[in-house]
Structures are given as C-alpha cells and as structure tokens.
Model the fold of this input.
Amino acid sequence: KNQIINHIMVIPNNWDIALPLLLQIKNKKEYSVKIIENELVKYFKLSDEERNETKKSDRRETIFHNRVHWAKFYLKKAGLLEDSKKGYVKSTSEGTKLIKKKVKKIDQKFLMQFPDFISYYSKKTKIKKKKVIRLRLERMDDVDENIGKTVPDTTSNDSTETDYENLDNNSSDKIDEYDSWKEDFGDISHN
Done:
C-alpha cells in the first residue's frame, strides 16, 4: 500500500520572524534585507516550496517575503530598526540594547513598551487613551518574564528544533490571551 503523507507548510508569521530578524542585526552596521531574508529561510528551515509560495492576492510576492517586511515594519515602528539606505536596515541604539537583554519573544504586546509603537498603534486603531495606558502598565508587568531567557542562535541549524521542543505546554492559555487581546485591540497579523 502506498501512503500519502500530506506536508503541511508552516510559514512563520510576522511575529515569529521579528526576534530572529532583529538578532540578525547584532550591531549598528547596515545589513541587506535580501541577505537577512536568506538567513531567516535557513533559520526557519523553509523548503523551496515554503519559501516560494506566493500570496493569493499578489502572485508576484511570496508569503515569507511579505511577512519578513511586516516584521521589519513593526520593529521600525517601535524604534528598534531603521532603514539606512534602500534595501538595507540597521538596528537603532534601542534595538541594540534590546538584543543584549536576551528577550525570548517579540510580539505586539511586547512592543507596547516603546512609545513610538504606542503612538503608531494608537493612531492606527484609534483606541482610547485609557486602554493604551492600561496596556502599557500590563506590558511593564510582563517585561520581566521576557528578559533573561536564552535566545536561540540564529545561525545554528538546530535552533528551530530546540525551540519546538521547548514550546510552552500552556498553549491554550496563550490562545485565550491572544483572543482577549484581539477583542480589545483587533488583529494586526498579516498574510
């Protein structure tokens, strides 16, 4: 009997990409976004099929390329990255400081500790000032849990497997937290 094994493509979302992207830019030197994207393909161990899958809305752009650029966009809005010239990016002093803190995850909630991101996000969503203040206070309480954790080396081939093995078993709590976040502020993930 022949068994057909379905390969499920798992292309990381922009939040999964954000931290490894920032880690590729370890100092204030300029880095080519193309080279960073190639390194991220290696980091996530993407197959050619996964890397080249195009968006349904625009067959000229790959999903992974789009998500890398959204991750870069949010890091720039938080003041952690900046464009140095066309096609190149570098970390800001805030971005360099953050890398040294060994953060374990960068997501929307984490970025709410940065005034530039709060300003961008509050304009984008037109949320009330009280909600921004509440969220910022909650974020300050959570910052300690993201600092001091070991961050995977983005050049290691085993880092993705190690990350997968160390996933938090409380995924239902994370889903509930995400659903609660979406109720208050909406979903800003992009395909």
